[in-house]
UniProtKB/TrEMBL annotation:
This is LLM class F420-dependent oxidoreductase. It comes from the Bacteria. It comes from Streptomyces citrinus.
């Protein structure tokens, strides 16, 4: 099981310690660094900065939001950074949800998410393969554009720049069972939002036919500390925000996933509290048991024992969410 470092997206501004964390992670043998985006900083620019200051560590987006860019634009970002970094890019993509897609990007959330995802990946792969002009007669992504409001002058094109790798890995962030199953067929890897090494049966049906080289790369917050309860608070804060605030009460993929993992009543309660503006209570309503099983928190020996559970399952890459250099070093030592 390889280790990656996950840095998420910026808050009010760039984190002053992130570059040093990435350089330390590379020195410790971490395989990859991952950035994210929501409605602030983008995922690609920080990776370009890290690429300029490192030599080996792979550069992943977890995730780049599909609604933020046309698929050809995303392919341009990926192939450009892949050249500049010497072939280190891992392209992680995701749909996000209706609130973000329609509220931030000003686009309709696709009525058929699986079809939209499949078409998007098809376009990106055509660009990267550069076998001919990009042509897709898709429901959501048409190249050339043939809509009634167009000029009719669109021309199928292939990229001027020759991509460095036609097989640049594409990973998808997917939460629903059908979406995960499709991911195993059309992508090179899967980026689970929550992964519990003790509840792998939640995904068993969707992962029934995996290729040997398929990546499964969940994120997990990690903290080496003496007080497990205190160490879990950042995990609970993250869960409270995602389950309560990242989606409408009637359509929240994160809450639905928590429900499928055995915490349906608790997920709905978190949503209710968050919607009422009682955010601190929403965070406290996150069960310690759930926060604990999807993270690595506690003294070194406890983390060592729990890390073995992650290594025994199908996870190929553990993406560590931790701003703490000591925690990163301990995990590197335990995983060596």
């Amino acid at each position: 099981m390889r280790l990656g470092i996950a840095l998420g997206y910026w808050g009010r501004g760039p984190h002053p310690d992130h570059l040093q964390l990435v350089r330390d992670a590379e020195e410790l043998g971490y395989d990859s660094v991952w950035t994210s985006e929501s409605w602030g900083s983008d995922a690609f620019t920080p990776l370009t900065w890290f690429a300029a200051h490192t030599s080996r560590i792979r550069l992943g987006t977890a995730i780049a939001q599909m609604a933020a860019r046309s698929p050809t634009t995303t392919a341009m970002h990926a192939l450009t950074l892949d050249h500049l970094s010497g072939g280190r890019v891992l392209l992680g993509l995701g749909l996000s949800g209706p609130q973000v897609v329609e509220g931030w990007y000003g686009r309709p959330f696709p009525t058929s998410p699986l079809t939209a995802t499949r078409e998007y990946v098809d376009v990106v792969r055509q660009v990267l393969r550069r076998e001919g002009p990009v042509e897709v007669d898709g429901r959501f992504h048409a190249h050339p554009y043939r809509g009634d409001d167009g000029t009719g002058l669109g021309k199928a094109l292939k990229p001027i720049t020759h991509p460095l790798r036609a097989d640049l890995p594409i990973l998808l962030g997917a939460e629903g069972p059908k979406n995960i199953a499709q991911t195993t067929r059309i992508a090179d890897g899967w980026l689970p939002l929550y992964w519990s090494p003790t509840r792998t049966d939640v995904y068993e049906a969707s992962l029934s036919d995996l290729r040997d080289d398929f990546m499964i790369a969940p994120m997990a917050r990690a903290t080496v500390c003496d007080d497990v309860g205190e160490g879990l608070l950042p995990v609970k804060a993250m869960l409270g925000f995602y389950i309560g605030g990242m989606g409408h009460a009637s359509r929240n993929f994160h809450a639905d996933l928590m429900a499928r993992m055995g915490y349906e009543e608790e997920a709905r309660r978190i949503q209710e509290l968050f919607a009422e503006g009682r955010r601190e209570e929403a965070v406290l309503a996150v069960p310690d048991a759930f926060a604990d099983e999807i993270s690595l928190v506690g003294p070194r020996q406890r983390i060592a024992e729990r890390l073995e559970l992650w290594r025994k399952g199908p996870v190929t890459d553990l993406l560590v969410l931790s701003p703490d250099p000591h925690t990163l070093r301990v995990l590197a030592e335990l995983n060596s």
